[in-house]
Design brief:
Length: about 350
Amino acid sequence: MGAKHFFVAALAALGSTGAVAAQAAASEPIKSAQGPKPGALETFRDWTIGCDNRNRCEAVSLLPEGGVWPDSPIMVGVVRDAGPDAAAEVWVSRDGKGGGEFSFHVDGRRIASAMSREGDATLRGPQASALAIAMARGGTLEIRSGNRSLGKPSLAGSGAALRYMDARQGRAGTSTALVATGAMGPIAVRAAPVAPTIRRAPLPGTSAPVALWREELTAIGKFTGCANEMKGAEPPQLYRLSKSETLILVPCGSGAYNFTAIPVIATGDPGRRAFRLAGFDMKPGWSEEESRPMLVNAGWTQEKLRLDSFAKGRGLGDCGGSEAYVWDGTRFRLIEATSMGECRGAWHWIRTWSAQVTD
């Protein structure tokens, strides 16, 4: 399933969320024309890869096309930052608890090992590079714990994915490449692009916003077009943005595993508050075809003025997308995005955007 298609399917499963209210014409538009552009994902047989705006790239193994979800799934990935000095790391994640040593065998030969914790392990340094190169060249990978086989993630497409990583990071033809090696030294590798810096608004006081009055609930339901979805749902959630502004997350539909909300900014005195749609430098993932911002499974962290949206493509959580924003005093600014466009057993989503936050 492609990156576009899982959103369509998930939206269909969620159902209608109502029409946009007439007042939307007077509200603040979603700002995206000059906004962030998260990286796209590419799939090579049983591996998918993506890079963020700093050319940090990550390749992740998938279940073979049409493969059956195993009893204890396991996946492996290769991640590498940009720049001449960055080294590859290999991680493994198993849907099972406990610790112990994991060993990695390519075509029957033990290449590396690492201690695991709660089913996860990470290899760094020469071991990681050797394993990544062996996987790119090999036919089979088996991960073991002692004499017990934990799984055999597919290597089909791993070489092409890592060659793509070499090209995206400007390593092709250099000694730092994993697959597309050449005679040039590390000095020929491009430096990592500078991360965008976003200044977070000052933290507001600790006083909680006053709950919406009955008349305000009616007004905000009409304003967002979510009046029907608000019936029987949890009340809108209110969070302090500043002395004069309040973020309101208005419930606007739910399904088996996704819950949508419309973010609204309120100003003015309780009982007479005015509403406008929250502004974003990039539309949240489910807002592509909407004239209003739509969050999924929204979360708020008050001490960071951070707003999260997390949309599953299906209940297993092996595809979907997420965005994280901070409030800069005017609008919400994207600080991180992740994506997994293939619904094929990879519950670890790839980072496609990142930014630094300052106060």
